[in-house]
Amino acid sequence: MSSVDWDARYRDGETPWEKGMAHPALPFFVSSHPGIFEKKPRVFHPGCGFGHDAAILVPHCEELTALDLAAAPLEAAKDLYPTESIRWEVGDLFAWDEPEKYDLVWEHTCFCAIPLEFRTKYVKAVHRLLKPGGHLAGIFFLNPDHALEEGPPFGVTRDELNGFFGNGFELLEDHPKPETYEGRENRETLMVWRKRS
Q: What is the pLDDT of residues 24-47, one digit of tens each?
């Protein structure tokens, strides 16, 4: 999927995206969307890394699958969050499939990490994995502190996000100034999309 050796990055500690905690906007998302979580959704979290977000989500889920392309962070995640309720999987999002579709996909750091030419594949993969009416929610990194070609992470504009997701999804919410990590203020947005069909 990428020329980046993600396992090596984790082994060498070259992980500037790793903040040691879940994204600060995630508890707000959970608490402000009882309609999504009251039925204990099946949740899919691609690019889960050390699993901090998964640990916040799992008490509100029937089942949570946390996927990463690299094995190294998942081994650490199992030690950090030793719960049988999280299904940790090493795999490629674009090849991932399940007989039963998900109610919710939580996005955080996956979309901004993939090569730009794979973004359409990301949209198709998420659309395929969600049930009709299912939700894609997450943090999109609009403005990294380097030129686009120097990523990952790769920035994206709101117009680009609407172009990628607008056909298969309906935008329900856009929170342009979510609570975030120190130093990322005004550089991210929290979006909630619903699969059209």
A: 999 999 999 999 999 999 999 999
pLDDT bucket at 84, cuts 50 / 70 / 90: confident
Residue 123 has a CB neighbour count (10 Å cut-off) of 21
Tokens of 72: 């190294």
In the predicted structure, residue 127 carries a pLDDT above the cut 70:
yes
Listed in sequence order, the residues at least 6 apart from 8 whose beta carbon sits closer than 8 Å to its beta carbon are: 14
Q: Are 191 and 161 in contact (CB under 8 A)?
A: yes
Judged on CB neighbours under 10 Å (0-12, 13-18, 19+), 121 is middle
Other Cβ atoms closer than 10 A to 100: 7
Given its phi and psi angles, is residue 2 left (phi above 0), alpha (psi -120 to 50 degrees) or beta?
A: beta
What stretch of H or E contains 132?
A: strand 130-141
pTM over 0.70: yes
In the chain, how many domains are there? 1
3-class DSSP state of 150: helix
Domain of 72, in residue numbers: 24-143+155-171
Give residue for tokens 């973004």.
119
- CATH number of the domain bearing residue 126: 3.40.50.150
